[in-house]
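Long-time lurker, first post. I've been practising inverse folding by hand and with some scripts of my own, and I keep getting stuck on stretches where the structure tokens seem ambiguous. Below is the full token string for one chain I'm working on. Before anyone asks, I'm not after the true native sequence, just a reasonable design that respects the backbone. If someone could post their per-position residues I'd love to compare against what I wrote down in my notebook.
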């Protein structure tokens, strides 16, 4: 396979008066799995269609392997696309669906004819090569026993594998996947994620994978690009994106349950004051400056000296539970994720002290601020930080 890097440089796109992409720049290196994560309507699918050549960009460049391909028709770009709907031909068998791209690429119009094609010069050898390539792809995808079935006789997971096989058999420079798992149930989605990752590792393939599901993006990709309203907010490896979000918008979108975003102040020493309590976290800023404190639910632990939270309800999730709490002077519900054994000893309406292990600070405009644990933290707070 001729694996290639993919570059989108300054891509802009309008539909009428609506600007759906605003100077988007992204790069997927050779053999990289890049997920494009965002809510519906953020422009991620439009970006993929522009890369595939199905839509034209109003401005910007599309490069494949370092070469400009924006002027080329879709079939000339050497890209394989896997759609949400699979787009299989219902009247063709699995073998025929997977074989079709190779027939269109390798056989002449005469050689593709059902009867005369077999008599055309070179047709027999070319068809034998196509059959061998199709069988080589079908084996790892566990499709060998299904080759004579039609799509209506397959499960959703099997159809998804056929769509993958049809893309893989072409040996493209890059794969473009647009929400390919959205139509699968939860169990099949987990299995399909593993299959796609295994395929990508086996082929060292370049993949751009569009999804609104953060679990897919975080568990499959080498890097994740978070999009919102036609802009790329941040591109980073999944764990870095989770630990070090560059803005409130990224912090809210990545993580489940979502990060708590709570209004706070900086006191005269730069310490963070939240819900009437001073936390052992320090930032550079003027006294009285309004900031937004970001605290992951799993970072809030019951600990003496913590924030005085009133428990509203408990959401049990098996081994873990999510506590829905109210803080004095804070309008939004604050979430804390704890072990179920801890939650079992709590009653709604009671007060529970919650100490954050880590606090992220953001300006009111939403950009990240530097924030560090304060060296003068009290012993109780230091215990929580550990």
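-- Answer (accepted) --
I ran through it position by position. Result:
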């Amino acid at each position: 396979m001729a694996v290639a890097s993919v570059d989108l440089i300054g891509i802009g796109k309008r539909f009428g008066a609506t600007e759906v992409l605003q100077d988007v720049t992204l790069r997927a290196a050779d053999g990289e799995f890049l997920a494009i994560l965002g809510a519906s309507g953020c422009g991620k699918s439009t970006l993929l269609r522009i890369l595939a050549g199905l839509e034209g960009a109003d401005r910007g460049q599309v490069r494949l392997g370092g070469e400009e391909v924006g002027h080329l028709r879709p079939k000339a770009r050497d890209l394989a696309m896997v759609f949400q709907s699979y787009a299989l031909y219902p009247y063709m068998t699995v073998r025929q669906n997977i074989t079709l791209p190779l027939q269109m690429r390798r056989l002449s119009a005469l050689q593709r004819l059902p009867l005369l094609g077999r008599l055309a010069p070179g047709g027999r050898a070319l068809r034998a090569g196509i059959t061998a390539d199709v069988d080589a792809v079908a084996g790892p995808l566990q499709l060998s026993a299904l080759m004579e079935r039609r799509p209506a006789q397959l499960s959703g997971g099997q159809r998804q594998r056929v769509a993958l096989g049809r893309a893989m058999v072409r040996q493209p420079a890059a794969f473009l996947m647009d929400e390919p798992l959205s139509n699968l149930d939860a169990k099949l989605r987990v299995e399909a994620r593993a299959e796609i990752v295994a395929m990508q590792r086996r082929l060292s393939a370049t993949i751009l994978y569009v999804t609104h599901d953060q679990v897919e993006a975080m568990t499959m990709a080498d890097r994740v690009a978070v999009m919102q309203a036609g802009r790329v907010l941040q591109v980073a490896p999944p764990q870095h994106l989770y630990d070090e979000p560059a803005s409130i918008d990224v912090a809210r979108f990545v993580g489940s349950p979502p990060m708590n975003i709570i209004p706070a102040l900086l006191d005269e020493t730069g310490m963070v004051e939240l819900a009437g309590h001073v936390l052992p976290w320090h930032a550079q800023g003027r006294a009285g400056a309004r900031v937004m404190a970001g605290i992951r639910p799993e970072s809030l632990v019951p600990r003496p000296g913590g924030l005085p939270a009133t428990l509203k309800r408990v959401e049990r999730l098996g081994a873990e539970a999510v506590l829905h709490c109210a803080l004095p002077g804070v309008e939004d519900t604050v979430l804390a994720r704890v072990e179920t054994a801890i939650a079992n000893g709590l009653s709604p309406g009671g007060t529970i002290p919650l100490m954050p292990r880590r606090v992220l600070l953001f300006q009111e405009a939403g950009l990240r601020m530097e924030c560090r644990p304060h060296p003068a933290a009290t012993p109780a707070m230091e215990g929580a930080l550990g």
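A couple of notes from the structure itself: Residues 247 and 367 are 5 Å apart (CA to CA). The mean pLDDT is 88. Happy to go over any region you disagree with.
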